C-alpha cells in the first residue's frame, strides 16, 4: 500500500482506528482491575467440551460417558479448543481457572474489534462524526472488556452479532450492493448461529427491508437473497451433516441426547418460583415417563394457570423483570465476583484451586467501575428510547431498532438475563449515539435560527 493510499485510508476510517485505540487503553485498565472470576458452570462446560474435542477427537458437551451429543452449538467450543494446543495450556484447569493469556488476549482483541465495528456501523448510518461518537461510546462500555475474562459465548457472540448488523446496514446503504455482500451476510449469520442460534430468525428483517426498499426486478432480488441463504447453509451444513451421520437423524441446530437436556424451561421455572405445585409435579412425571421434557411440561401447566388467573399480571411481571435486566450490565453483580469465597463444588471442578480475593485497591477500583457502568448503561438505554420517535422512514435505524426489539421480545418470552441481552448492547450504543447526534443537530439549527443577522459588510473588513 502506497503512503498516499495509506494516508487516505487513515483519513477515511479514522473513527474506527481512533475508537479502537481508545478501547485498547480503557479495556486494558478494566481487565487489570477485574478480579479473577469464580468458576462458572457454563464456563466449565465449554472448556471441558473443547478439551474433549482436542484430546479425544470427540464432540460432547460436559459429557464423561464418551458418547457424542448435540446439546450445544459447536462455535464457541471450537474457538476455545484452539487454546488447548497453545503453549502453557496442557490442562483444562489452566484455561478455565488461570485465565490463560492466549485466551484472555484473544477475547480482549475481539472486544476491541467490536468497538471498531460499532464505529463502522455508525458511519454506515450517518457521517464520520456519528461513527466516531458511537465508537468512543462503545470504548467506554467496560462490560465488553469484562466478558473477555470468562469462558462464555458472549465474548465471541457480541463480535459476530455486531459484524452481522454492520453487514446488514451496508446492504441498505449501498444503492447497488454486490452479490458478495449478501454472501458475506449469510456466512456471518451462519457463524452467529453456530454460537448463538437464537439470532438466526432476525436475518429475515434485513432481507425483508432490502426487498421492500429495492426498485429492481423481483427476480434479481430473489437471486441476491438466495445467495445470502446459500452462504448461511454453507456454514451450517458441516454441523448438520455430522449430526445426521452420528445420530442418523436430522438435527439442524441442537437436540437432547440419551435423556440429557439443557432445559431453558427449568431456568424459567426457577426464576419465577422454584417450588412446583402438585399438578406441575404430576405433569413433569408423566412427561418423563414418556421420554419427554418434564420441565417443559411443568412450565406449560404453570403458564396455563397464570394466563387463566391473571394474564395482565403475568405480562406485567415479565416486562418489569425485562426492564430491570435492561438496566443491569453484563458482569455487574459485583457480589458474585468479590464476596464469593471458597466453593467446594466449583473448586473441585477447577482442580482444587481456592478463590483468591483481589487486593483492596483493586476491589475499590472495580466497585467504582461497576457503579459507573450501571449508571452508564441506564443512560444508554434511555437515550436509545428517546430517539425512538425519530426513526420512522429511516430504514437503517429501523433495522437497528428491529434487532433490539427482537432481542427484548425473545428474552422476555423465555428468560431475560443481562448476560443473554449483552450481544445486543452495541445496537443500543448505536441508537444512543444517533439520539445524541440528533439532539446536537437540533440545537445547532435552533441557534442558527435565533442568531441575530449581522448588518456589517464583512467584505469590507
Please characterize this protein's 3D structure.
The chain has 461 residues and is mainly alpha-helical. 68% of the residues lie in helices and 0% in strands. It contains 22 helices and no strands. It has helices at 3-12, 14-32, 41-56, 75-81, 92-96, 101-125, 128-139, 143-146, 154-173, 179-193, 204-213, 218-247, 264-272, 278-289, 294-309, 311-326, 334-338, 344-349, 360-386, 395-413, 418-421, 425-450. Helix 9 (154-173) packs antiparallel against helix 10 (179-193), helix 9 packs parallel to helix 11 (204-213) and helix 19 crosses helix 22. The longest helix is centred in the middle third of the chain and has 30 residues, at 218-247.
- Provide the gyration radius in Å: 24 Å
C-alpha geometry: globular
The amount of beta strand, in percent, is: under 5%
Low-pLDDT ranges? 332-357, 454-461
Question: Strand-and-helix sequence, N→C?
Answer: HHHHHHHHHHHHHHHHHHHHHH
Mean of residue pLDDT values: 79
Structure annotation, total helices: 22
Structural class by helix and strand composition: mainly alpha
Sheet with most strands: none
* Secondary structure: number of strands: 0
- Proportion of residues in helical segments: 55-70%
Distance between the termini: 47 Å
Describe the structure in brief:
This protein has helices at residues 3-12, 14-32, 41-56, 75-81, 92-96, 101-125, 128-139, 143-146, 154-173, 179-193, 204-213, 218-247, 264-272, 278-289, 294-309, 311-326, 334-338, 344-349, 360-386, 395-413, 418-421, 425-450. By secondary structure, it is mostly helical.
Amino acid at each position: 500500500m502506497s503512503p498516499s493510499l495509506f494516508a487516505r485510508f487513515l483519513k477515511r476510517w479514522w473513527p474506527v482506528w481512533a475508537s479502537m485505540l481508545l478501547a485498547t487503553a480503557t479495556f486494558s485498565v478494566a481487565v487489570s482491575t477485574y478480579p479473577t472470576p469464580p468458576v462458572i458452570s457454563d464456563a466449565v462446560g465449554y472448556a471441558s467440551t473443547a478439551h474433549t474435542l482436542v484430546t479425544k477427537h470427540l464432540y460432547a458437551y460436559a459429557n464423561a460417558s464418551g458418547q457424542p451429543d448435540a446439546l450445544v452449538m459447536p462455535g464457541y467450543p471450537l474457538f476455545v479448543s484452539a487454546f488447548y494446543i497453545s503453549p502453557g495450556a496442557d490442562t483444562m484447569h489452566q484455561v478455565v481457572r488461570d485465565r490463560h493469556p492466549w485466551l484472555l488476549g484473544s477475547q480482549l482483541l475481539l472486544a476491541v474489534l467490536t468497538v471498531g465495528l460499532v464505529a463502522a456501523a455508525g458511519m454506515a448510518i450517518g457521517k464520520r462524526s456519528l461513527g466516531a461518537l458511537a465508537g468512543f461510546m462503545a470504548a467506554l462500555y467496560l462490560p465488553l472488556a469484562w466478558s473477555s475474562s470468562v469462558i462464555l459465548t458472549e465474548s465471541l457472540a457480541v463480535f459476530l452479532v455486531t459484524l452481522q448488523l454492520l453487514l446488514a446496514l451496508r446492504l441498505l446503504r449501498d444503492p447497488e450492493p454486490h452479490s458478495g455482500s449478501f454472501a458475506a451476510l449469510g456466512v456471518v449469520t451462519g457463524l452467529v448461529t453456530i454460537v448463538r442460534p437464537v439470532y438466526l430468525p432476525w436475518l429475515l428483517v434485513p432481507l425483508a427491508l432490502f426487498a421492500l426498499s429495492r426498485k429492481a426486478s423481483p427476480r434479481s432480488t430473489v437471486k441476491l437473497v438466495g445467495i445470502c441463504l446459500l452462504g448461511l447453509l454453507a456454514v451450517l451444513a458441516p454441523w448438520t451433516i455430522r449430526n445426521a451421520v452420528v445420530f442418523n437423524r436430522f438435527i439442524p441446530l441442537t437436540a437432547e441426547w440419551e435423556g440429557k437436556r439443557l432445559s431453558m424451561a427449568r431456568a424459567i421455572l426457577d426464576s419465577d418460583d422454584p417450588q412446583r405445585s402438585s399438578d406441575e409435579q404430576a405433569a413433569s412425571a408423566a412427561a418423563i415417563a414418556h421420554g419427554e421434557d418434564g420441565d417443559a411440561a411443568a412450565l406449560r401447566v404453570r403458564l396455563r394457570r397464570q394466563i387463566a388467573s391473571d394474564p395482565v399480571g403475568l405480562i406485567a411481571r415479565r416486562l418489569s423483570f425485562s426492564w430491570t435486566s435492561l438496566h443491569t450490565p453484563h458482569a455487574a453483580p459485583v457480589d458474585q465476583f468479590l464476596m464469593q469465597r471458597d466453593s467446594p463444588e466449583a473448586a473441585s471442578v477447577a482442580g482444587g484451586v481456592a478463590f483468591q480475593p483481589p487486593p483492596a485497591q483493586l476491589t475499590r477500583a472495580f466497585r467504582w467501575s461497576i457503579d459507573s457502568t450501571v449508571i452508564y448503561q441506564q443512560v444508554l438505554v434511555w437515550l436509545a428510547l428517546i430517539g425512538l420517535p425519530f426513526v420512522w422512514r429511516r430504514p437503517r435505524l429501523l433495522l437497528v431498532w428491529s434487532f433490539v426489539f427482537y432481542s427484548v421480545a425473545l428474552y422476555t418470552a423465555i428468560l431475560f438475563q443481562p448476560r443473554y441481552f449483552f450481544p445486543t448492547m452495541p445496537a443500543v450504543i448505536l441508537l444512543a449515539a444517533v439520539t445524541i447526534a440528533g439532539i446536537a443537530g437540533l440545537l445547532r439549527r435552533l441557534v442558527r435560527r435565533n442568531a441575530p443577522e449581522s448588518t456589517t459588510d464583512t467584505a469590507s473588513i
